[in-house]
Amino acid sequence: MALNFDKPLYSLSTPVENKADQATWEGESLGGITEDNNRLPIPVVWLLLLTVLTAFAITFPLWGQRPNAGLYVDYVKAMNTPEIMAIQDDKAAMAKIIDITKGEISKHVTRMDYEGLLARHPLSMDDLRIIKPQIEALMSAGKDPEEYNVVGDLVVLANFEGNLKADGKIENRERKQPWWDKGYTIDIFYVIMFFIGVTIVIKCLPPSTWQPKHHH
Amino acid sequence: MLKYLFAKNEDIPAGSAAVFWGFSAIVWFVIGTGLGSFNAAKLAFPDFVTGNEFFAFGHMRQVHVHAVIFGWISMAFGMAMMYITPALGNTKLWSEKLGLWNALMWNIGLSLGLVLLWAGVSSGREYSDFPWPIDLYIVVFMAVPLCINVWMTVINRRTQGIYTTNWFFASAVFMVSIVFLTGNLPEFFHLTGLTEAYLTWWFAHNVLGLWITPVAAAIAYYTIPKVTGNPLYSHRIGHLHFWSVVVFYSTPAAHHLMSAPLPEWLKSFASVEGVLILVPAIAFVSNILLTMSGKWYMFVENLEVRFTITGVLMAIPLNMQGGFQQTRAINWYIHGTGWIVAHAHLALLGFSTFLEAAAVYLGLQMILKRKLYSLTLGNMHFWMLLIGFTTYWVSMTIAGLIQGAGKIYEVPYIDVVIAEHPYMIARWLGGTMVFVGNVLWLYNMWMTARQGTVVPEGRMPHELAYER
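Above: the input entities. Below: the structure tokens describing the complete assembly.
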């Protein structure tokens, strides 16, 4: 069956094909069941559009991600300052660390929403004491702390494996998870292909302005 | 029924196979929910039946799960296919004899598999717990014969068009064989590690997405127009539903493994697809509810419509949960908790069970040409199922949120166990109510076959008044 593009938004079938389909539609009983030819109600179309947008908006890796060690580099550095060391109370010390590092972290952390990430992954002084030597070891080894995740009491290499780095070594992949990755790119292609495909299928039917007359 | 196994196909009364499948399904439902009630009692009362390994929770849990999925749900599907597929094609079932043998082999295979699981012979892979020889048996003696019978009936139809229900039936019986063969590759070829984990959840997701969900929805596409007499609201929306199930439901398996070291792009892809399962859900729910136009009084008065619409309405919270609970932001909180158990029961005991129960109620009355023996028992069954399920679902959802909080805030495990104890008791009460309701149902359908008022040719059972 060839597609007819004279009125693509009306019907992709020819008038002759539509006539034949309409005759079959009205004349045939499917076990006593009949079908109408209504279009999708407009509010439901909007609901579907909202669903597609929500599907992308809510699944960004930004949400629910483990914190990377780069977020806490300035916290660790601040711990060594006399100002912090002089504070006996852990809660007061932590509050002071957050205060004096505000505005500094963005210089070290490349991701956009570092404040949001810090707010979602708050630490206590005890947590900091546990990860401090691990982060310092990374820094002294020349590693990029943003490529490491804080998982419980461990600082470990992030399990994200992105593109190859400039040196091209297969074992040396990008470990910083972007807020947008190729899974989304595939999804955009997939969703577009789906809606094109299903639109073609539906537009091959007689137009929704026609409704069958049921005789039983 | 068994006397027809060796009869000539043309000598077997139409609908015999459907009756065999239908009663088998109800019996498995009684067994499956009885096992569920027993298992729930063990969680609510830890000293209940101890000292025998065969009654340990670890032996019993998967027997319950598989009895319900492959006994109740799948045999109810088989029943629906045996009578709906030919009815929609204005023809007979291609082979009643194959249908009867298929039901027999299904019961034998399932019994064998459940005995093995009970004995502790298990693959250890959730939802595909059956050892691989049983998986192969399921494909060869259970799924493929069903597929052949459905496809041949569709091919030999006396209509030019194929109604929406039969698109779903024909594609689902084909896809379930593929799901079994592919999802169990780790067992056939001893694949381990991430490959095994991914294929385990590919199987589990697609048994739900390409078997249970589409077939249950297909049943609603038949039941509502058939009983209400209304035309299906939209053939066009049926297309959107069908193709979005195929495209969006088959792909999100990785969202079951959001914390596993799978490639992140795969998880991102699966997570978006996971939300997009709302597309078929919206299409399905809107199409069925709009078909009810002018006939909403039947939601109150007619048992089959009430079961079906209740199931359809449950598709809304089911897909809202399913769509969003797999996202990274929510999954970290509820993963591995009772929330998931509640969600799984919303899918199987809520949404799909209500749709299948309607198909079995309607089908047995139409084939046996007998009106339901007792509407009172039917109503009791409905309400015990609904109240029992809701009690279960709400209590397990709350227990899951408690467990999630305990997990995130590192509350000692025993404190979490104590906090969720009341909800375990509520779960047992709800599950037991479902079980008792099903015993009533079995009695009601048995009595319908023996003493139900005869329905004249060409009439629907609900068109007749009760004589008693």
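Note for the figure: Residues 69-157 of chain A form one domain.
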